[in-house]
Amino acid sequence: MTISQSHAQLDDPPGRDAPRAAYLRVYLTFVRNSLVRDLSYRSNFVIESVASTSWVAMNLGFYLLIFNNPYVTQIGDGLGWGKYEFFVFLATTMLVNNLVQIFFMPNAEEFSELIRTGRLDFALVKPIDTQFIISLQKISWASISNFLVGVGLLGYSLWRLTTREINPLAISPVAAILYPVYILLGVAILYSLMITMSAASVWLGRNQSLTNFWFYITNFSRYPMEIYNAGWGAALMYIFTFIVPVLVVVNVPARLLAQPLSPRAWWEWPLAGFAVLASVGSVLASRWVFQRAIKAYRSASS
Amino acid sequence: MFTSAFTHWTIFRIALQERLVYRGDFAIGTLLRFLPIITQIFLWHAVFAGAHATAVSSGASPQEAERLFGYTYQNVVAYYLLSMLSRAFSSMPGLASGVARQIRDGEIKKFIIQPIDMGGFFLLGRIAHKLAYYSVAIGPFALVFFLCGDYFDTPPSGAVWLAYFASLLMAFLLGFFLELTIGMIGFWFLEVSSLLFVYMLFSFFLSGHMFPLDMLPAWAKVIVQFTPFQYLAYFPAAVFLGKIQGPELWRGLLIEAAWVALFIALSRVALHYGLKRYSGYGG
Amino acid sequence: MKIGRLGKSQGAACAGACPAVRKGGAEPDAKDRICPCYLAHVAAPATPTNLSLQTRNPTIEIRGLAKTYHVYQKREGLLASLGGLFHRRFREVRAVDGIHLSVQAGEFVAFLGPNGAGKTTTLKLLSGIITPTAGSATVLGFVPWERANAYRRRFALVMGQKNQLWWDLPAQESFRLHQQIYRIEPTQFERTRDDLTDLLGVRRLVGQPVRELSLGERMKMELIAALLHSPDVLFLDEPTIGLDVVAQHTIQQFLRSYQEERKTTILLTSHYMKDVAALCRRVVIIANGRIEFDGSLDGVIDQFSGHKIVTLQFAEEALVGGAPPDLGRFGDVLEVTPPKARVRLPRHEVSHLLAEVLGRWPLEDIVVSDPPLEDVIAELFSRSSAPEIEQAEDDRAPMVT
Fold first, then answer.
1. pTM for the predicted model, two decimal places
2. Strands in C21-89 per DSSP E
């Protein structure tokens, strides 16, 4: 059958006037494709998983060493971060960072490459939101092992906290519901930061310093924010809360879950509220940057 | 012989020029390298504050909690700064992967043809790199050390200074030949990156880069003694801070020298057999 | 185009927009040139099977389109780059310098031009990838750089030197992704995919990872991916570059039969004469960002070549005393292999040469032919290319405008 014959059977090729792309289905296809790809490089997949998990394990080892000392029972003076509370914090860091690693990190790196090689063209001509494709098309399944370690650590720490003899932690239903919500908000903030930095390569060209920069900035979010509140560190704390809000990413959900319901510091609920604003604001800001970047895109020639 | 010296000078000069071009970037990069240390220091500050509170509330004297693992808070800060300095000498970014890549791409061939010693070539390149780095980095480094002068108590004695410098120089050589040897594995295996990653992993934790090795439990300390990693960051810093003294110090230096000699030998052997194997495959 | 046949107002509009008229002033014969204006107003446009409304309005309409780049000094390093944001030195490069073009539905148009002429930039403007600095263009009634989904659904872009298929996956997975993105109905999708893969002979390869395919096979897959959603307009940027002769031929054949059946409007840029000669009736020559010519291939030779090639075959006995020594008088002697001689000479000299030779030597055969198209085009390009423009599209560092 010739092409025109097969087409003639349908008056108007379907999908022609379909109002929008089927985002969910497209995303599921991305998921499937990434899985197929990662599994076809099976040994690589295993190596990467083992490598990143060993890294995390060693990091945990460091914290275990610290708490090994008989005098170290808490981080900070009366801040509420005892050993297992601190581990809840760590687990939250792992959860947020790994979600970003799984869903967004490969895409942010790819984005800079697409800009550099000019292959971004192909994303621009598809009838689907460009930021959607760019941000979501690849999923790094290898980081799932780390995510699971985080879940394990969280579970174990919460168990220890809720079953200890003195002052067992009571997890309120509100905290239990809000925790995953705030994890997602934290991911949104980190995503926005990441995509903004990748998009900047339209103007700044390829730049290794940018990836280092990402690492340095997110390094700050690894610990409870109160520890910075000493001397000139307070300035850092405010900058990274209100200007580049990386500190609220882990702090809010971790506090919500690990700290007892009362007494809460006066600033906790306002901070939580701010975190919502920060997430929304970051996402909007990053979208704006993204669209400016697309406009300035030059499409490197072959 | 004359031409050989001239060639070496040219190589050195070119590598130096190449690095100096990126002066501004260097300065910023150097300052940025201190950032992760800052987070760690804040963490330790909080750890010490917590320990102090714990000691007080449990009725013990607060002095007891001023030293954790044998380090006061000031010691810890000083340690991190010193380990950064050691790492500045011993870290060889891109060396192993660069060598492996050159092997893979066949650029290694020029060492078979030309009368330049490969190990020497890379070594000179690295020296140039480090010199260029320091000529710019010495500014930020000096600044940081000056600002943090309070964290250092008694300066070391003359003999210890000597030992310190010796350990730094050997740290450079050790780091260099260790990574060079790893890179040479590229003659036999295509994928050096996994091995490199394992090396980086162990090096990060067992070299003292992340924390002073005194924190390790006894059994771990024993294991670490059999590895060369501690000389890359921990040993020079510990020497300076006076954590290692007397006969232990000299013994440590000797062992470090032995490790250096071992890796120099290993790299030469690997080069010899590697090139043989390589040219056997009809370049 | 015979202006006389059009109404006065139409003639004026044509005269304003038609490059042929602007250049020569004379009225060429309709036989030689297929002027877009003529096509629009006089000849009946090809009936498209899949265009809904406007059959008289051109599918692609470009007016005064221009794209100027500021090319900045690239700075290495983060600090230098940041400093570069404040103090920039640049030179201005006019990649596209005011072009007018009209393409009707179902036409197959070739863009020819040297490196940096603006062909790829024009395609990118029409695809909506970049925005112009001046002028306007509509494709299928849409403004391309607004990137409306309704527009993007109806065209496709294939670039010979860039791959869009996922490298590590079989082509069929990329096809499936296309299906989802373009919302192609499943049975329709399968039928189109099977048709296309059969036509290009790659049916058995769709399950293999793209990285394992040869260059030619990859290109075929890229073409298939682009055609899965049955676009009305197809932009091809050097699709056969780097391919072996067989693959080039297959793709040319495919494009020709596809276009004949589907009446897709196709814009093709190429360096290869064979592509152009095999596929397109209409050729647009671009150099320095401007359209130098818009018409048929024969018209190119007529307009741009002042030369003819005369091949003389002498009778055996005439060459006993040696070949005629003074052929060089008339032009360039290209080749003398007895009993033939080939001379390239200005047109007006042809009659003189023939008169001389016929009178003095017995000839077995005379052929007067046009120089090869490649030579004509190459000469045209070398006459008009400027070094500045050459660099514009070679600049690999994307910098801000």
1. 0.78
2. 60-72
